[in-house]
Amino acid sequence: MTCDVRSTLFFLFVLIRICLAQNFEVPEPKIEILKPKGFKVTLKDDGYSFFGFRGNINEEFHEVNEGQMKADIVSKQGGYWVYKNRSKKLEVGDTIFYWIYVIKGGKGSMSPFLEYTVSASENEIGVGSPSVNSYTDPNQTTTTPESPLSKRFGKLCEVSKTVVQGENSVCEGSLIFNEDFDTTGLRSLSKWNAEIMFPTEPDFPFNAYIPDNTVSFEDGSLVIKPVLTETQYGEDFLYNTVNLGVRCTGKIDRSECRHEASVLNVFPPVLTAKISTRHHFTSVWKI
């Protein structure tokens, strides 16, 4: 049986469930436009065990079918069911036509045909600072020019003292960084890098940072699982000499990248992982 046949049979099964078991109302999910392309659909969990999405770009549904985009999701992320599409480039005025199907308590229900149109505000590249004249009338009351964020969001934005890489300013109380780890491998994370090194001062932890077999992702969560060194380097690892080479993220030709074992400097017995946003995201918190 081919994958296409299996997919068709599963879709027919879903249609049968829809026809026979329309048992509860399905809430409308939240849709967010992603940059530089794509969109995200988020539905808050309410005891569901399955979330299905079917969608079209600029093409209405006139009957129940699989559409241009389809996803069947069987695990939630932190209390939400999430579908991400990073392949569709959306412009202002484009409309996402879609329907969703969920299973709760063994019973399924389908939403009505829904739609979401991309607005101009979601495609703003940025807002520049207002121009300010160098001459000030001595009889005129002066005011402090609005920041770009205050101009964009009005009085709701109080500019924070926190400094964020790549941003002129941020609002107090706003989210400055988020990562949902919706991936299956480190290589697909755009803001994170794994450390590969023998850590030294100031803590001198008795381990090595090696991401192989120590990092995984499960249901939107980052999992770091230390392993015994002997599982990768053999039982006589204590007195091995290891050079991490070009993979090393520490100082080349130093103890961070090359470990020469001796009686007083045995190889770390544990391998673990460390990832950071260095080179991608930094912030300075101020009060």
From TrEMBL:
Domain of life: Eukaryota
Membrane-crossing residue ranges in chain numbering: none
GO molecular function list: carbohydrate binding
Bias (Polar residues) ranges: 130-147
Region of interest (Disordered), residue spans: 129-148
CBM39 domain span: 24-123
Signal found in the keyword field: yes
UniProt xrefs under SUPFAM superfamilies: Concanavalin A-like lectins/glucanases
Pfam short name (any one): CBM39
Protein name (Swiss-Prot/TrEMBL): Beta-glycan recognition protein
Organism: Trichoplusia ni
Lineage of the organism: Eukaryota, Metazoa, Ecdysozoa, Arthropoda, Hexapoda
